[in-house]
């Protein structure tokens, strides 16, 4: 946000205007009605209109002067008056003026007080005081004998304040009156520190007893016309009134210019609040800053927007909101505004829109009020820790300096060297590590140095350059340099977060097919970023934040800039810097392939940089390359060098051709400047020509030449990336270094030339061969890692991994695999077509299949390669080739067909030869076979990586209902319906046409299917339906679920149910003989008919003894306990453990069926009948007030309340369905063991159960109660389909 500014035609001046604002004695005192001040205040506390008294020059064509904006922002509260009794310290603040085209101009204002010499103004102030005192006597005289009411209402307090205000008056005979005045610089770029020094020295010149060396016109003329803007990457020194002023500008490869102290923001707010405010700004909430100090408002606003790099705030941005523009706060759009506080009103007295999306920041009081539903910034805790470590290294408490004086003193007592000594916390060192001293005794390094010397390269120069930097003399004070250091370190940490999160953003950008003008015209209807595919690659904890951030205007504008700037020369400077950083991250990832993970990756510290640079220098000197890696210290060292060696010194101020008598010095008064000498600059510009920046141009040419050579080396380095693939990131003492040093020795005598084209064919072949080996090794490690992660702790217990290797999100592992597949498909490619080599190959293969009319037989439960690929092509939510390729990989893994499909893709040898060079990985037969074999191991586990990631896509589902063949399903006359539920949602009720048993419908992805609710409306003559099972198939993934039923639906049949809840079983697919079968056990199925009701024939039900029933209860409860002790991502469906075969409902049914007395002939008796009778007994008992004790009374009431609620549900779920609902609710509310104890002592039990029944054996009942009590510690959440219609 900071730094940018002036128009394109600006000639490069440091400042465009010098402005003076203040009291116009000719117009007199004009009350500022728009400031909203209370006129009950004393005249000294009121505000009056200020005016622009003078500006030099009158106007410049590249930056037209906006008098209204400058007048309001130089003195936002208007004129202020004080007497000799008040503090009159000068106040500095900066501001921004945004023009209609979005460009910005920066203003820097110093407000001070001058004595009022106009007798007219003094008399007017005296008159205002007489009027104020008269009004006060009339309005504020308290009634007599009313002290009690005064004290009771609290008005006395206010009256005392008014009296104090009355005594704080102005008497023309004894008081000296002062009025505020402002001097201001308007500049195209935000050099805040330099402008502040210029203005302070000018003010010092008029308040110093001694006059300045030259008239003030000389210094103002110099800053307006003779001091140029420093070019990018250069520093500039120019003269103020009393001393030199230095400013420096970042190069085009560094973070943009930002000259505000980050330190002040963290001291005012603390790290936690800054990160929260930063998150609100990224998500484009309305943000209102509140402070008594204008400069604090500006500093906080500019800091937050600068930390957004590479993104830019796109909405209303008014860091200092003038009092006349308070209506802006009602704007229904995102804004970032600063509101001035008078120090008296608190938050409750502010009339602000109480919106849910408002972030209110009280800067002075260390307070932030967050909007509702604010997602957490990714890796927030680690991010805060990294920032805190940097702040503590500079003696700044992370909590901020307000309200933490004790902790602040402790923090400041910490020394940076103490922090550095703790290597584990990743603190930034106070001084670079002397790696040479640490490693000089290492024999391996010594031999490597000797080898380097034989190549003719001396390392002494490297040492000299490193040591010479310690002797640099910085040409600014130490405190200012520390501010520079802290600024760049904090900004690098923030920039590193976005570089890591958006390292692959470019491949998801949707490039328009039409020309720029057409695209820009239809921009609102166009999608510019493949959000679904990008989010599918992200770690799960990132998704709440990223899914909202991708919808912001700042992200859309960032991507638009990327699309509009195809050429490097056209790129926005911010985008160019960010892309260069991303490119280096990618280059580093190619050499050192790392796993995509949500693990926090810190910005490189100085310690690490020192070690890596040393090893890297040795290695790259050996192979004559020049690899550059962007460490945190690069920007910091660049600033240090610019401040140590000034690139240009501007012309010194000099005497001007002024009239005699002008430029007169008068102590305490800013003089009236001579406008004729300040209105125009030098015609020939002789002063600037004398020191024209030819030296800068020469340095620029030298720098470009150096960068050109470095670019060539980088390009060459990519060709032999396998040699340095892990070297630059290993610790000096880690074992892998020995291998790379040995490789360097083996190749040192061969690789001597700076260009790969001069290498021998044998070296090139060896290079490519090692790259192929590296890819295969990475594939082997990655597949093993993914299997270990998927199998979880069981794999660790079997010895297939270590405990600390697990815990990485499945999403990031699969994204990492997709990256590997892209690199494999890109290796040795003849001509790259599109951003995804894999998807290009798939499309070519698909087109050949279609062209040759080659059709494949599609098995009933499988998909062919071509049919599979077309599905991905037809998903409209996925826009880019990279996204389609990754969706294809995820879908293949979910279907256990990845190895088979890739094998089929590579079976066309003619196409492979046409696309790839001979040394390509895909043309190395042995390695290719091993690669496919490793991928085949994914068939051993179940992945739902497509279903769980692409949650918003529409998926067709096919339903098949299979009624009983024996009992005349064709006679069924009612209207059936079905509702399908999954982990991601449910369909709602779907009406099924009568006599139609098979249908296809489309809805948003339901995830893994869990339950099916099926029923009918009981209409017609034959409203009885015996359903054997229901099949539901996902037409994209091919997953088929079977929902067994085996029960009647109809009044008077079975348990009288008109609807049933069925639990699903995922069927395993029948693959071909060469494919391995999945060993993962199938999901549990719905309970069968045979155990659901007590029939007239005891032989029709399974006879379990008490031991078997106890074992079933134990296994059911143990399954639930295991479920909650697993990591959340490894848990299965809790519904299956409750309602599936062998679940808790099934086990408790066995308990209540054991010893149940045989019913009368032709009548089925259900468990629910027994429970209803028990309810009636306890309700009667309570009415007669015969409940034995209070605990039993509470249990009985709960039991009866649940039975009544279930009976009153509008659902026709039958008696067994009601029992299932009761068990689920009891498990959720931890009441099952109470109910078992209650029913065991109920007299109804003696009537309906045999003496041998388990429920009548107190020893077994007590054992059952103890087992059920183990469920109390778990928070059981029931699926909506299980408790639909119940509000209890």
UniProtKB/TrEMBL annotation:
Pfam families for this protein: dDENN (PF03455), DENN (PF02141), PLAT (PF01477), RUN (PF02759), uDENN (PF03456)
Residues in PLAT domain copies: 955-1063
Annotated compartments: Membrane
GO MF annotation list: guanyl-nucleotide exchange factor activity; small GTPase binding
Spans through the membrane: none
Keywords: Guanine-nucleotide releasing factor, Membrane, Phosphoprotein, Repeat
InterPro entries: cDENN_dom, dDENN_dom, DEN5A/B, DENN_C, PLAT/LH2_dom, PLAT/LH2_dom_sf, PLAT_RAB6IP1, RUN2_DENND5A
GO cellular component labels: cytosol; membrane; trans-Golgi network
Domain spans labelled RUN: 808-951, 1135-1283
Domain of life: Eukaryota
PROSITE patterns per UniProt: DENN, PLAT, RUN
Keyword Hydrolase: no
Domain UDENN: 32-572
Keyword Phosphoprotein set for record: yes
Gene Ontology process terms (BP): retrograde transport, endosome to Golgi
Region (Disordered): 684-708
Family note: Belongs to the RAB6IP1 family.
Protein name: DENN domain containing 5A
Species, as recorded: Catharus ustulatus
Designated gene of the protein: DENND5A
């Amino acid at each position: 946000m900071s730094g940018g500014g002036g128009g394109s035609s600006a000639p490069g001046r440091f400042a465009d205007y010098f402005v003076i604002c203040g009291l116009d004695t000719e117009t007199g005192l004009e009350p500022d009605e728009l400031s909203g001040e209370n006129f009950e205040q004393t005249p000294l506390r009121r505000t009056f209109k200020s005016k622009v008294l003078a500006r030099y020059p009158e106007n410049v064509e590249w930056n037209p002067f906006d008098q209204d904006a400058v007048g309001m922002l130089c003195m936002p509260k208007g004129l202020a008056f004080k007497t000799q009794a008040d503090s009159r310290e000068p106040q500095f603040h900066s501001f921004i003026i945004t023009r209609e085209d979005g460009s910005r101009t920066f203003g820097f204002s110093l407000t001070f007080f001058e004595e009022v010499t106009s007798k007219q103004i003094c008399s007017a102030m005296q008159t205002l005081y007489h009027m104020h005192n008269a009004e006060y006597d009339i309005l504020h005289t308290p009634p007599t004998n009313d002290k009690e009411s005064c004290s009771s209402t609290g008005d006395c307090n206010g009256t005392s304040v008014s009296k104090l205000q009355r005594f704080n008056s102005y008497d023309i005979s004894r008081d000296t009156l002062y009025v505020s005045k402002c001097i201001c610089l308007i500049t195209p770029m935000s050099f805040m520190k330099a402008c502040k020094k210029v203005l302070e020295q000018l003010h010092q010149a008029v308040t110093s007893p001694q006059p300045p060396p030259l008239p003030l016109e000389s210094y103002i003329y110099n800053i307006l016309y003779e001091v140029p803007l420093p070019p990018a990457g250069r520093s500039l020194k120019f003269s103020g009134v009393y001393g030199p002023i230095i400013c420096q500008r970042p190069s085009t490869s560094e973070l943009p210019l930002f000259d505000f102290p980050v330190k002040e923001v963290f001291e005012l707010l603390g790290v936690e609040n800054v990160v929260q405010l930063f998150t609100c700004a990224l998500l484009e909430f309305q943000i209102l800053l509140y402070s008594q100090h204008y400069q604090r408002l500006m500093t906080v606003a500019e800091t937050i927007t600068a930390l957004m790099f590479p993104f830019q705030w796109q909405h209303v941005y008014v860091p200092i909101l003038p009092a006349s523009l308070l209506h802006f706060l009602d704007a229904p759009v995102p804004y970032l505004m600063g509101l001035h506080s008078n120090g008296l009103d608190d938050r409750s007295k502010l009339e602000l829109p109480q919106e849910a999306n408002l972030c209110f920041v009280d800067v002075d009081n260390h307070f932030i009020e967050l909007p509702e539903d604010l997602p957490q910034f990714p890796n927030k805790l680690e991010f805060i820790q990294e920032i805190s470590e940097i702040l503590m290294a500079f003696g700044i408490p992370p909590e901020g300096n307000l309200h933490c004086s004790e902790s602040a003193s402790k923090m400041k007592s910490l020394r940076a060297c103490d922090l550095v000594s703790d290597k584990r916390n990743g603190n930034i060192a106070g001084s670079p590590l002397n790696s040479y001293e640490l490693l000089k005794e290492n024999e391996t390094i010594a031999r490597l140095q000797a080898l380097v010397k034989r190549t003719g390269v001396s390392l002494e120069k490297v040492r000299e350059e490193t040591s010479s930097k310690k002797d640099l003399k910085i040409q600014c004070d130490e405190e200012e340099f520390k501010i520079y250091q802290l600024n760049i370190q904090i900004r690098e940490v923030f920039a590193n977060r976005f570089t890591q999160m958006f390292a692959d953003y470019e491949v998801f950008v949707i490039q328009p097919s039409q020309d720029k003008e057409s695209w820009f015209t239809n921009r609102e209807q166009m999608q510019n970023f493949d959000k679904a595919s990008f989010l599918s690659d992200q770690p799960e904890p990132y998704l709440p934040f990223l899914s909202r951030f991708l919808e912001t205007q700042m992200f859309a504008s960032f991507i638009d800039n990327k699309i509009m700037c195809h050429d490097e020369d056209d790129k926005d400077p911010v985008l160019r810097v960010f892309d260069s950083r991303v490119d280096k991250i990618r280059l580093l990832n190619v050499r050192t392939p790392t796993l995509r993970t949500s693990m926090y990756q810190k910005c490189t510290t100085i310690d690490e940089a020192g070690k890596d640079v040393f090893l890297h220098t040795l290695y790259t000197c050996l192979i004559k390359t020049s690899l550059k890696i962007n460490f945190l210290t690069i920007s910091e060292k660049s600033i240090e060098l610019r401040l140590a060696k000034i690139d240009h010194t501007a012309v010194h101020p000099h005497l001007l051709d002024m009239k005699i008598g002008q430029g007169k010095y008068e102590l305490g008064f800013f003089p009236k400047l001579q406008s004729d000498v300040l209105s125009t600059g030098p015609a020939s510009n002789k002063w600037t020509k004398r020191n024209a920046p030819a030296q800068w141009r020469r340095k620029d040419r030298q720098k470009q030449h150096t960068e050109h050579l470095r670019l060539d080396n980088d390009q060459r380095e990519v060709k032999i990336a396998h040699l340095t693939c892990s070297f630059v990131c290993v610790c000096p003492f880690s074992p892998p270094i020995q291998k790379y040093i040995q490789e360097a020795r083996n190749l040192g005598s061969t690789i001597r030339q700076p260009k790969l084209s001069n290498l021998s064919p044998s070296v090139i072949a060896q290079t490519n061969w090692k790259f192929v080996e590296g890819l295969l090794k990475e594939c082997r490690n990655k597949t093993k890692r993914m299997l270990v992660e998927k199998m979880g702790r069981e794999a660790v217990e079997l010895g297939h991994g270590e405990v600390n290797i697990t815990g990485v999100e499945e999403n990031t592992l699969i994204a990492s695999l997709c990256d590997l597949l892209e690199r494999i498909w890109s290796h040795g490619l003849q001509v790259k077509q599109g951003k995804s080599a894999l998807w290009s190959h798939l499309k070519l293969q698909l087109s050949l299949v279609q062209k040759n009319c080659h059709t494949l037989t599609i098995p009933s439960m499988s998909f062919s390669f071509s049919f599979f690929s077309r599905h991905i092509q037809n998903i409209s939510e996925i826009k880019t080739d990279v996204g389609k390729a990754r969706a294809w990989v995820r879908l293949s893994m979910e279907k256990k067909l990845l190895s088979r499909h890739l094998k089929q893709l590579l079976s066309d040898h003619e196409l492979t030869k046409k696309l790839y060079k001979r040394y390509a990985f895909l043309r190395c037969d042995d390695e290719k076979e091993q690669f496919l074999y490793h991928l085949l191991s994914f068939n051993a586990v179940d992945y739902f990586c497509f279903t769980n990631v692409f949650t918003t896509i529409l998926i067709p589902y096919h339903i098949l209902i299979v009624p009983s063949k024996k009992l005349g399903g064709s006679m069924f006359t009612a209207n059936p319906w079905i509702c399908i539920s999954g982990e991601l949602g449910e369909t709602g009720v779907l009406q099924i046409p009568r006599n139609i048993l098979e249908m296809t419908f489309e809805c948003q992805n339901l995830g893994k299917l869990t339950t099916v609710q099926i029923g009918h409306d009981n209409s017609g003559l034959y409203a009885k339906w015996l359903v054997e099972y229901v099949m539901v198939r996902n037409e994209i993934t091919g997953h088929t679920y079977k929902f067994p039923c085996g029960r009647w639906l109809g009044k008077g049949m079975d348990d009288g149910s008109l609807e049933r809840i069925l639990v699903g079983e995922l069927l395993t697919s029948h693959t071909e003989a060469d494919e391995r079968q999945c060993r993962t056990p199938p999901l549990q199925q719905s309970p069968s008919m045979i155990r659901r009701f007590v029939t007239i024939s005891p032989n029709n039900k399974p006879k379990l003894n008490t031991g078997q029933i106890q074992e079933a209860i134990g296994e059911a409860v143990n399954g639930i306990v295991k479920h909650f002790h697993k990591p959340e991502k490894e848990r299965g469906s809790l519904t299956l453990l409750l309602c599936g075969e062998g679940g808790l409902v099934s086990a408790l049914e066995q308990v209540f069926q054991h010893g149940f007395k045989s019913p009368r002939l032709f009548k089925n008796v259900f468990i629910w009948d027994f429970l209803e009778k028990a309810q009636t007994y306890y309700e009667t008992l309570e009415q007669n007030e015969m409940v034995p004790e209070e605990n039993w009374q509470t249990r009985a009431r709960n039991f009866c309340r649940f039975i009544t609620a279930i009976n009153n549900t509008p659902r026709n779920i039958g008696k067994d369905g009601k029992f299932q609902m009761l068990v689920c609710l009891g498990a959720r509310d931890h009441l099952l063991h109470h109910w078992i104890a209650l029913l065991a002592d109920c007299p109804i039990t003696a009537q309906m159960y045999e003496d041998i029944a388990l429920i009548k054996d107190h020893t077994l009942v007590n054992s059952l109660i103890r087992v059920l009590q183990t469920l109390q510690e778990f928070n059981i959440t029931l699926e909506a389909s299980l408790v639909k219609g119940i509000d209890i």
